[in-house]
Amino acid sequence: MELISGLPEDVARDCLIRVPYDQFPAVASVCKGWSAEIHSPDFHRRRRTTKQAQKILVTVQSKIDSDKTRTGLLAKSTTNPVYRLSVFEPKTGSWCELPLGPELAFGLPMFCQIAGVGFDLVVMGGWDPDSWKASNSVFIYNFLSAKWRRGADMPGGPRTFFACASDQNRTVYVAGGHDEEKNALRSALAYDVAMDVWVPLPDMSRERDECKAVFRRGGALCVVGGYCTEMQGRFERSAEVFDVAKWKWGPVEEEFLDAAACPRTCVDGADGAEGRMFMCRGGDVVALHGDTWRNVAKVPGEIRNVACVGVWERVDAGNWIEWVWGKPHMGFVLDLKKSGLGLNLPAQRTTLVTVQSGLPSPNLVLLDLFFFYQVKMLNIIGA
């Protein structure tokens, strides 16, 4: 059966690879041949090699009443926030809101974690928006079908403020956090999204509540900072690294961070052999070079508190950082190679985040905690 009647197969495929990612479900519903093509790994490899692939940024954001924001009533509008998934496609500058499944009709769980695995977006844990009870639920959104499915619950009961990271291919890793009795946890888990199976990892050496997980290139899960039950909010500087191939934790790195601080802004630099990590420390953006953290840029004074940092890749420039803060719809880009402020970026009316487009070299996205009370972000690669 021909993909497109009257056209050679290579020409038909050349047409299909130009379909925008948000039209994949509609295209796949046309016929079995098109569905098989859309779900084929070769199809997405061709999109990447021909530079037709699209980068998208996914965030968990509270809905903000812009009228109240303009009249200075932001605090009232965020008293009982409802969390939704917003998607930005940087090449076109377009925003959309992902539809939530029936079980999420009243919004995403507060403090949930999200991770991208292939063409799946995984939403884990958090607090029920009505009862505020901790949940161990897992919900998965597939960008090829535009459908939600329920995943297997996290084993071991509800946990909150756990670290979460993805290998971008198949597995999501969970580590630390605390249980319903506020006891910090040493346990860690791996979730195979395709198989819908949880596998326990060996316990970490220490309890780590509010830690940050970063999956490094080369197959290492780095769990940074956090604190034990007795310390209650007093973060430590140490980190532990889990070698996926050897299935074992390495020795604790006691002085991984320069200073004891919340590690929520730690991210992998996505820069291959250089292997850098980035984070925000006070008013600076710092990068880990070997065993040393070095200042690479200043955070603008208008940012009250950086909530989180995300990474994406760009081919036509060096390392870029973007900040969003203060007034709604304001954003800036910083070129780390030139260390200068750049573009004033477009933004959605009710969503305070923007990004730049491109392919391979790292880009960081920084968001202000004041406006993004609970924000998560990721890149869906190769859509």
UniProtKB/TrEMBL annotation:
One Pfam family of this chain: Kelch_1
Highest taxon of source: Eukaryota
Ranges for domain F-box: 4-45
Span of the signal peptide: none
Annotated GO biological process: negative regulation of cytokinin-activated signaling pathway; regulation of phenylpropanoid metabolic process
Gene3D superfamilies, per database record: Kelch-type beta propeller
Protein's recorded name: F-box domain-containing protein
